[in-house]
TrEMBL record:
Residues 22-583 form the Major facilitator superfamily (MFS) profile domain. PANTHER family: ORGANIC ANION TRANSPORTER, SOLUTE CARRIER ORGANIC ANION TRANSPORTER FAMILY MEMBER 1A2. It comes from Peromyscus maniculatus bairdii. It is a multi-pass membrane protein. This is Solute carrier organic anion transporter family member. Keywords: Cell membrane, Disulfide bond, Ion transport, Membrane, Transmembrane, Transmembrane helix, Transport. It comes from the Eukaryota. NCBIfam families: oat. Residues 610-629 are annotated as: Disordered. The chain crosses the membrane at residues 21-40, 60-80, 87-109, 132-157, 169-197, 217-241, 292-314, 329-351, 363-383, 487-509, 559-579. Belongs to the organo anion transporter (TC 2.A.60) family.
Length: 629
């Protein structure tokens, strides 16, 4: 009677240490880190307005995350495997939370200092505000530092202790966490951006501006406090995981093989302690000499450059192409991309688990699916609308279309007496169906109403009578454009599903093309290269604020669709050579994972049989007596 109770108790203690609990905790960490990153990117405009800084400084703040991340990721990927990986992931989550908290700190410091200078000159407050952005940058560096151990150490931990056929499904679940985080981050950013930055210290009823006003500053600091709390909470489970786990599927044989594993672990620990640094350069040399691995990095860099352009500029591109609001476009993007991506990741992992797909077959599956999605993406060229008619930019003030990207005549006889700024982008729509870069350039003399309901009257450029009016924003497009937008998102749904089906098989090729002892370092080096070289094209095409904002309205659709298509087309060249090399080689990951696991299982079964054979009745009776006592 006592023996079964002891078994149940032991199983209950071991339950928390199973790989699935670690997978759940790591997925939550993925959600937290991607939530923080998305929120940070969404709040850049609010930070720029809050501290009254230039676009170049905003770019420096945004890039500071990569500084903290890239400085450590390769060394963390190597040295982390020699230490307690779950513990290091937990510490990383805490550091990310600390970074997020530091980024919110300027709001409280500025509020206290502003109260001290309230009776003084406004220039004092301005000087304080202009220097506080340094806290945000330093906090972002710390956040990037804290994120370094999560991906390489987490994935290598799963690969080491999960069944080889379950690993693709687990990686797919992690990818879902990367998708959920940005969704929550966008919702949090939208919520905080609609709250005034000083709502807790001023009477919001006295405000004369709305969130649509360019002078509005949202409560950017609130979201950073929430991100800090979420990151710290996700760190807690990692402090309770052991350094090593029994291989998935062998938990029931722990009692039989426990002593053997302890001896093996002690011997391995001595080897790691003795050679903690001497393997680094040989591992790096091995990775750089691995032609499949290096070709995969080249493929990833080209592919990621294309994807970053698409994802970064899709809201602005659709807003301009189809004349919809930013909120509506973001909602539609989430509705048509997230569900198929969820389904694709899970199905891709389940297929590889069900059929125990070899890495060579997985590479062919990923190649064919990705190529199919790439060819379908050319249909986006057919789903475009005409550019907005903007007087002085895309058309003349008489409504005659002009060539794009030429030296347009912004001023006209109807507005030369108004002394308008020609680099201001605050568009209005006239009742003649033509948009103007600002109410001043439309020749408007007065306005009625406030906020989004403001109407400009007596606009001399709109009509000859001088009584024509205009409203804020660009003019709406016709019903044909709405139909094309529907077709666009249907195609987005199809291509998102096909693309996500190819992600897991392709990523497993990366994991299995390197030796097991090099896996964590390989993941870190891959992440380093993609982050350094994966955003080059996006940087070249980024819109500037203020002066160059007006150019975005005529952003060439062929550039937005064509540049990613060209980059993705180039990425299939290294993919082709990967398939060719894999025909002749046996991937080290396949040998280590499948054959070694099978050998260990057979050895365990053999030991179990030997124990059963050598047990005599006297030994059994003696053991039963000890159990009862």
């Amino acid at each position: 009677m006592a023996k079964p109770e002891n078994r149940v108790a032991t199983h209950g203690v071991r339950c928390f240490s199973k790989i699935k609990m670690f997978l759940f905790s790591l997925t939550m960490a993925y959600v937290a880190k991607s939530l923080s990153g998305t929120y940070m990117n969404s709040m850049l405009t609010q930070i720029e307005r809050q501290f009254d800084i230039s676009t170049s400084v905003v770019g420096l703040i945004n890039g500071s995350f990569e500084i903290g991340n890239l400085l450590l990721i390769i060394f963390m990927s190597y040295f982390g495997t020699k230490r307690h990986r779950p513990l290091m992931i937990g510490v990383g989550c805490v550091v990310m939370g600390l970074g997020c908290f530091l980024m919110s700190l300027p709001h409280f410091l500025m509020e206290n200092e502003a109260q001290n200078f309230r009776s003084g000159k406004s220039t004092c407050i301005k000087e304080i505000k202009s220097s506080m952005w340094v806290y945000v940058m330093v906090g972002n560096v710390i956040r990037g530092t804290g994120e370094t151990p999560i991906m390489p150490l987490g994935i290598s931990y799963i690969e080491d202790f999960a069944k080889s056929e379950n690993s693709p499904l687990y990686i797919g679940i992690l990818k879902i966490g990367v998708v959920i985080g940005p969704l929550i981050g966008l919702m949090l950013a939208t919520f905080c951006a609609n709250i005034y930055v000083d709502s807790w210290s001023v009477n919001t009823d006295d405000l004369t501006i709305t969130p649509t006003d360019t002078r509005w500053v949202g409560a950017w600091w609130v979201g950073f406090l929430i991100c800090a709390g979420v990151n710290v909470l996700t760190s807690i489970p990692f402090f309770f995981f052991p350094k090593t786990l029994p291989k998935e599927g062998q938990e029931d044989n722990v009692d039989v093989t426990k002593s053997d594993k302890e001896v093996k672990h002690r011997g391995k620990a001595k080897e790691e302690k003795h050679g903690i640094t001497k393997d680094f350069l040989p591992f790096m040399k091995s990775l750089f000499c691995n032609s499949i691995y290096m070709l995969f990095i080249l493929l990833s860099v080209l592919h990621l450059n294309a994807i970053v352009i698409i994802v970064t500029f899709m809201p602005k591109y659709l807003e301009q192409q189809y004349g919809k609001s930013t909120a509506e476009i973001v909602f539609l993007i989430g509705l048509y991309t997230l569900p198929p991506i969820f389904v694709g990741y899970v199905i891709g992992g389940l297929i590889m688990k069900k059929f125990k797909t070899s890495m060579k077959k997985a590479a062919y599956i990923a190649f064919c699916l990705s190529l199919t999605e790439f060819l379908l993406s050319f249909f986006y060229f057919l789903m475009t609308c005409d550019n907005f008619p903007v007087a002085g930019l895309t058309t003349s003030y008489d409504g005659i279309q002009q060539p794009l990207y030429v030296e347009n005549i912004v001023l006209d006889d109807c507005n030369t007496r108004c002394n308008c700024l020609t680099k201001t982008w605050d568009p209005v729509c006239g009742d003649n169906g033509l948009a103007y870069m600002s109410a001043c350039l439309a020749g408007c003399e007065k306005s009625v109403g406030t906020g989004i309901n403001m109407v400009f009257q007596n606009c001399s450029c709109i009509g000859s009578s001088g009584n024509s009016s205009a409203v804020l924003g660009l003019c709406k497009k016709g019903p044909d454009c709405t139909i094309k937008l529907q077709y666009f998102f249907i195609l987005v749904l199809i291509t998102s599903l096909i693309y996500s089906l190819a992600v897991i098989p392709g990523y497993m090729v990366l994991l299995r093309c390197v030796k097991s002892e090099e896996k964590s370092l390989g993941i870190g080096l891959h992440a380093f290269c993609t982050r350094v070289f994966g955003n080059l094209q996006s940087s070249c095409l980024t819109w500037n604020s203020s002066a160059n904002e007006k150019k975005s309205v005529v952003f060439n659709r062929n550039i937005y669709i064509g540049v990613p298509a060209a980059l993705r087309g180039l990425s299939y060249l290294p993919a082709f050579f990967i398939l060719k090399l894999m025909r002749k080689r046996q991937l080290p990951g396949e040998t280590d994972s499948s054959e070694t696991e099978l050998a260990e299982t057979k050895l365990t079964e053999k030991k179990t049989e030997c124990v059963d054979v050598h047990r005599s009745p006297e030994v059994e009776n003696d053991r039963e007596l000890k159990t009862k006592l």
